[in-house]
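lol ok so funny story. i was supposed to be doing the assay writeup but got distracted and ended up predicting the structure for this chain instead. priorities right. anyway since i did it might as well share w the group, maybe its usefull for someone
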Amino acid sequence: WVDLKLLLRENPRSMFFLNDKEGFISCFGMKGDLLKTVDGGINWVKQTYPNLEGNMNHIQSDKHTHLYAILSGLNTNTVLIKSTDKGNSWEIINDSPELGFSLITFSFKIFEDRIYISGKNGIIIVTDLNGKEMERIITNASNIFDFEIIDKDNIVMSASGKILKTTDGGKKWSTMYNRSARIVDFWNPNEGIMILNKSYCATDVYQANDVIAYTKDGGLTWDESAEATNIMSDYSDSQLLTDKGYILLIGKNIIVLNR
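and the output, tada:
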């Protein structure tokens, strides 16, 4: 491991790399402030954007290497923005007041030629890659914490206190797990990895007993790790390194999983 020495006064908000050389780190600043590197993190250049108001979060790319992010400020509405020149400039492509936003988990996923956005009141807003709304998927949830788009029919979603899934593009939803959970990944409708809450401490509601679990039958049964304290609340992010393994950032620890 090499310390990139970003010299920031606060923690970075999100990070995304297009390849092993070009990457971005969003940082606090009300003009969508970014740090950009083109040499794998050896040098960083700060970029600000006069046309933006707010902080940039959850940077992602499509298959064309166009970038997307959520922009959210204290006194501004949440908007979806896009860059077609590797972060040199950004434009607002969707400013619907129905857009939702969660700094802790995420706000949208790109799947093929569509963007699936977490909306308010349990709505998933589906747009094309230019931000034009195509449809709205109504769920049985009051709030959406995250979801995994397996294909256009199969979606797994983490909602308030339960995990829901659909096999028909959102027309009908069923409960996969009836407690709080976080999604690590689902690579087909049957197989996936999640962090499942098992119980809470009777004398301390901030102490939870959680497991990392794998299912091969769509959530009917789970192979579970040993229970540990606050895995779910300490979980920050995961990354598929190869077709066979993941790394999970849990608190200050990096956990390696076999797929």
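The chain has a mean pLDDT of 86. The first strand starts at residue 14 and ends at 17.
back to the writeup now i swear
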